[in-house]
Amino acid sequence: MTSEQYILKERLQLLIGEATVKAALFYTFNFDPKFFENYVMPLLVPKQAFTNNNIANNILWRKLYKNSEVPPVTVYCDLYAKSLENGPMLDYQIVSVNMPSVGKNKGNFHPKHSFILLKRENGEEALLVITGSNNLTQGGWCENIECISEQALINGVSYPKTLKAAFQNLIANVASTYGKGYTVAEEAIYFFLNGKGVTKEKPCLFYDSFQQSFPAFLEEHVLSDSSVNEVEVISPYFKNDTELLQFFTDRGLTVKIEAPFLQEYCLLAKEVYEAYEKAGVTWYRSYESRSNHSKVYRFYGEGTVYTIIGSVNFTGPAWRGVPGRLKEVYNIESALLYWEKAEAKHYLLKHPIQQAHLYFLPVEDAGLENRFQERVNAPSLDFLIDWRIKTISWRGKLQSPCSLLLSDDVAIDLNGAKEQALLALPHGQFIVDSLARHCILTVSEQVGNEQRLHTYYPNQVGYEQKPLEYRLSASDIIDAWELLSREEKEANEWLLSRLEVYTELAQDESGRLVQEVGESKSLLNEMARHLYGLIQLEHFLFDPTILTKSGKQKTLAANNLRYYLTHDNVDTLRSYVKDIEKGYSEKKLLGGYYWLLLSIVHHRLYQHPLLPKLLKETLEAPERKVLRESIEEERSQLEEKIKSLETALGVDAKKLKWAMEALALDEQHT
What we know:
The chain is an alpha+beta fold.
């Protein structure tokens, strides 16, 4: 086994290369969605270049989802170790695991895995498996010292039966125990592991807590070698007594352990340090300035070295495994065991600690990773926000009265109905916009006289119709539509360059949007451009030759219809209508012109005579039904705006009829 030092992101970029990512599945204890979406998710679309501008990247993600270029992604994390500051913004599945309780004590969902399924340019599929100690956080990927192992499974090339079966069993056990059935990402990866092209075994074994306890695994696969007489341990967390240590010393092993340090301070309680030392441990330290979050066990025998890399700390719950009967709290852990022949011992630990120069730093809170007590058990709830119809739904078994707190004066009773239309609530639009910016839900549970607050991440569908935080002006949207006949890459580059200029001006130092910025061009002076731009969009969307094209071209046409008619992005019709509505409300656009533009959008785009046929020819029935309903919702809202405007303007009915007939006649000519 060879070891190297590298930045994990750069290593994954190298391993993925120009391949297409088909699916990705992650297991983590701590989870920070903002970090994941800005640092890890871009690795899954390697052909897309992202910027340092969050708003511009948000626009790019919507374009990628529109073109179905984002693979299915699932993340499992511990319910109590997720970020309370940053909620999920993108469209992927999150399963927050609520581990079982014993009294008030609770273990951790603690494995750290990245399963990334690739399809290379030659058609070959490969599954990258990263196993180690790194959480999906900035600390785990950028700041700490972490220890990981990598495997690349390729059917018929590198596909050992024992290893692939162990990975498959872990996925099945996690999904059946904590999920609600397989997600799309889990299905794709599980199916890949069904391959028949088994190759010879590798000198490694996979461990997880569903198989057996960690001591049982060591007894069977390491300590069965009677020549093993020495072990090195690297772990940031330790059991307060010497019970686990005795497992080694009772078998005659010499034990060396690296103590956790912050600069010159040992982060163990002094009494724990001294108890271990008295029991025979030789303590070591590292002089690295970064925190060492690795979990490594290295055993030395006669001519053979066994190395275990994974998530297993030197704690009781980490070692227990899933019990037959729940008597004590336990973690879900995972690790890989490697063995290799070695004529000489090459030790990991180099610097024994001199007691005379040791300072202890009292640790009041050893961190969530080592906390197993006094966790209030949260209600079992799953939430789903559907941005297409602006609803929130939930499911779960509730033992106490629970309410979802959406604002200071708006709460939803969760014990009754299972779905709520958000726009029907008081301040509904404000609540929708707030959830779009900060997607973390707070639930109030009443247990006797005690009120308990719990936080949840909702899963989200219809990401493309999630309200945008930033919009271009209608004039800029027209500029974007004029590029529709060109390559999409060129159009995207123009859009990004425009966005980067505007959003740099519109954000404060923290990146928060503080004002809308756009070129202030008079819509009245640009009337001809608006008419031309709308005609350009019409010709782009309703090209009759699409009906004679290949299946791939028809799929692209359907994606374009869905995107421009129903999605919420800076260059779609929803943004265009919002901006001309704003221009009218601010008296920058005459009512007659506003009515004309709305009518053109309504009649020549949402009621185009070719629309039903295009939908029928380009989409299967289930997708066609969903898109037709979304288009009808947009059309209905436009119709209401037009009727309200006609009433406000007091336009003569005969003139309206003449104008509508003129629009219809012009449509026939074009």
